[in-house]
């Protein structure tokens, strides 16, 4: 009798390991594309749109300049606060949003990237409403403290109350734009903002001076033009994200503290840097006003408008730097991330230094666009001749600040901003007390910019991002 061959039980089929979702080609470009070529490819549409966005303020200032020096001085009082809102919503919190999404996509965490969209809208929506309440409530006291009085104060309040009533729209469209930029998509935000500027060109003079059945609203009309174009931009960018025309898509998801923290650990710290920049301008405006009154404020504010123009211009490079640096650090490519950052810093220095030197040589070409008042031209020219040649260091430091957002490490840009604030305000006030000359006040502002850019590039080039992080620097 032969022994039966034992029958072995069938082994269950092995369950295949879950595979990570395929990486999007745009994300792969951020990780593998040639650094300089990739940066320029992403930067040119973004730089174009930032110039278009900056032209909003320039167009309105040009039209308001036709209302007289008091109206121009009133806008100079409001402009730092409006730019602070743009920088907070687009550059600070926007940088936190773009950085968080870029790092999630670099690590191939697609579900987290989608969930971050909702968290970004919650953060920026709430901050927009808070910003409106604060500025409308405390605006009169703020503008008086900055030197506003009489007709210039009335003009400031007429513009401010309207433009900040619609502040939440600016915060929301910057949230949508930052989501798209964090994925490496610079074109959609560019198109939306350009369309808004195209609308602003005819809308602003119509509302300021009136046309047919539309009454003349004066300075307040300039504010309404900004609110209406912001509404259009918000609608277009919101449509793009909500309908899935983005790698990171809007989905209803459970709110998670970890994702709020992922945005805020960059955005909140970056906001301190934004406050530093705006506080520097506000306090130096007060110093100039103490020395020369409303005419000097109008001249300094108009000249300083060019410095503010550099911020969106550098942001054209900065937004791609956030996406490139964040994605590469998310993927563990630290050496490549640093090389990209320093390349962007060099480009920003060359661009802004060229603008600063041109302004120092031909200051009246810029100032004459906004008025012909002799006192305004004199003060603005003195500012541009002294501070313009230091603009390159401002561009250098600002571009590396954006790169640091992508890295999620903002300590050194924050310290450099504090140094700039101290030199500009304390040094400027001391110069005014000791010499009584605005020229020495402007010299302190120039020195502050040089110190700002030099400190940031020195410490980042030494590997400060990676001293307490894993991976090779």
Automatic annotation (TrEMBL):
Recorded topology in the membrane: Multi-pass membrane protein
Top-rank taxon, per record: Bacteria
Transmembrane portions of the chain: 42-64, 84-105, 117-143, 155-176, 188-211, 217-242, 263-288, 308-329, 341-362, 382-403, 410-432, 438-466
Keyword annotations from UniProtKB, A to Z: Cell membrane, Membrane, Transmembrane, Transmembrane helix, Transport
Region annotated Disordered, chain positions: 1-23
Xref: InterPro entries: MATE_fam, MdtK-like, Membrane_Transporter-Flippase
Localization of this protein: Cell inner membrane
Composition skew (Low complexity), residue ranges: 8-23
Keyword flag Aminoacyl-tRNA synthetase: no
Signal peptide stretch: none
PANTHER family with a match to the protein in the record: MULTIDRUG RESISTANCE PROTEIN YPNP-RELATED (PTHR43549:SF3)
Name this protein carries in UniProt: MATE family efflux transporter
């Amino acid at each position: 009798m032969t022994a039966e061959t034992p029958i072995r039980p069938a082994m269950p089929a092995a369950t295949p390991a879950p595979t990570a979702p395929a990486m999007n080609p745009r994300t792969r470009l951020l990780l593998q594309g040639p650094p300089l070529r990739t940066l320029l490819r992403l930067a040119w549409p973004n730089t174009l749109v930032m110039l278009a966005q900056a032209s909003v303020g320039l167009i309105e200032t040009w039209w308001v300049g036709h209302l007289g020096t008091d109206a121009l001085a009133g806008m100079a009082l409001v402009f730092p606060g409006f730019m602070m809102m743009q920088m907070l919503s687009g550059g600070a919190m926007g940088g936190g949003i773009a950085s968080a999404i870029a790092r999630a996509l670099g690590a191939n965490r697609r579900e987290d990237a989608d969930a971050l969209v909702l968290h970004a809208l919650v953060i920026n929506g709430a901050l927009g409403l808070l910003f409106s309440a604060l500025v409308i409530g405390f605006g009169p006291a703020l503008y008086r403290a900055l030197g506003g009085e009489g007709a210039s104060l009335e003009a400031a309040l007429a513009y401010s109350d309207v433009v900040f009533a619609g502040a939440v729209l600016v915060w929301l469209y910057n949230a949508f734009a930052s989501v798209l930029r964090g994925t490496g998509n610079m074109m959609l935000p560019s198109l939306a903002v350009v369309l808004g500027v195209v609308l602003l060109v005819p809308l602003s003079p119509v509302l300021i001076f009136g046309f047919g059945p539309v009454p003349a609203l004066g300075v307040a009309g300039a504010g309404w033009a900004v609110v209406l174009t912001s509404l259009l931009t918000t609608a277009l960018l919101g449509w793009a994200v909500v309908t899935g025309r983005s790698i990171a898509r809007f989905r209803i998801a459970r709110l998670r503290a970890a994702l709020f923290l992922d945005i805020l650990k960059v955005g909140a710290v970056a906001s301190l840097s934004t406050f530093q920049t705006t506080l520097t301008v506000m306090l130096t405006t007060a110093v100039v006003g103490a020395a020369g009154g409303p005419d000097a404020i109008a001249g300094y504010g108009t000249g300083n408008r060019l410095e503010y123009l550099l911020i969106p211009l550098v942001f054209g490079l900065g937004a791609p730097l956030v996406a490139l640096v964040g994605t590469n650090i998310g993927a563990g490519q630290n050496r490549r991330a640093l090389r990209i950052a320093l390349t962007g810093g060099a480009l920003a220095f060359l661009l802004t230094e060229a603008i600063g030197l041109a302004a120092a040589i031909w200051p009246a070409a810029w100032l004459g666009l906004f008025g012909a008042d002799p006192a305004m031209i004199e003060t603005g020219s003195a500012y541009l001749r002294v501070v313009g040649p230091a603009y390159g260091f401002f561009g250098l430091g600002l571009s590396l600040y954006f790169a640091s957002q992508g890295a999620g490490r903002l300590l050194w840009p924050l310290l450099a901003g504090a140094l700039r604030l101290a030199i500009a305000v304390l040094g400027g006030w001391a110069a005014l007390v000791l010499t009584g000359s605005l020229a020495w006040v402007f010299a302190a502002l120039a020195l502050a910019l040089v110190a700002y850019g030099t400190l940031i590039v020195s410490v980042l080039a030494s590997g400060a991002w990676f001293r307490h992080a894993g991976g090779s620097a």
